[in-house]
Amino acid sequence: MNLNEIFFEFSNKERYDVFRSLYHDKKRHSQLEKELNIPGPEISRHLSRLLKKNLINKTDDKNYGMTGVGRIFFRVMELFEYSLKHEKYYNTHDINIIPLHFILQLGTLKSIEVSNKTMKNIEMWSSLVKDSEKFVFAISDQFQDSLLPIVEKKINHESIDVKALIEENVLKTDVKELFKDRHAFYEKIDMFQNIRVLSHLDFSLIVSDKGAIIFLSKDGKIDYSECIIDNSEDFIYWTIGLFEWYWKKGARLDAFIKKKYYSKNG
What we know:
Blueprint: H1 3-10, H2 13-21, H3 29-36, H4 40-52, E1 56-58, E2 64-66, H5 68-85, H6 87-92, H7 100-103, E3 113-115, H8 118-130, E4 135-140, H9 148-157, E5 161-167, H10 175-180, H11 183-188, H12 191-194, E6 195-198, E7 204-208, E8 211-215, E9 217-218, E10 221-222, E11 227-230, H13 233-247, E12 251-252, H14 253-265
Parallel strand pairs: 4-5, 5-6
Antiparallel strand pairs: 1-2, 3-11, 4-7, 6-12, 7-8, 8-11, 9-10
């Protein structure tokens, strides 16, 4: 059996619907016939072909279910379906900057939407901060100065976890000048613990307990005019995982300042 043979089986929509139906539960022939509204002889033909390719199996009690290999193929097909749903966006934006193990999970995130309205995207970015109740995590190549009053207000009135991973370029101005007038604010968020630095970023995100938004690169620059967004629990957890993966790679801010500023100025 080779890959071409497998994809040939999935080229038949009815057969793929039968296959997909078996992902979560094992089912009898009669259940598939009723659920999918496909004639019995056709169900039999599709099951026979899927059995022959070892994508499904049949138990002693005449139930059909996916094999281990079948489940792997199904998860890959979910990713293909997701990619085609947002084909235009992913053909113009670089998703491959995201680690592969995160990309492979995208097919399970059914409710992600693409937004191409710049002002609306900026409003959504702000709303995720303003409406948050538990945490706000951000990755950005820009210093989001306009969000500081919102974050400060949240910290003053609520117990909220704030973390930011920023690009080194953000700190290319005089470090002392950048932080001088915001000393009290950065003290509140424990700046040296909760801000980290990466030399370069190819995407930007913000995630809170209210949702998440991600901006990918287009033509070598992060494109803030289009984004992927969702407020589902699954997408929030996925984006938290992505943030934490990059967070571990970031340099602590105190170490960065010591290396980049004080070593230069004695």
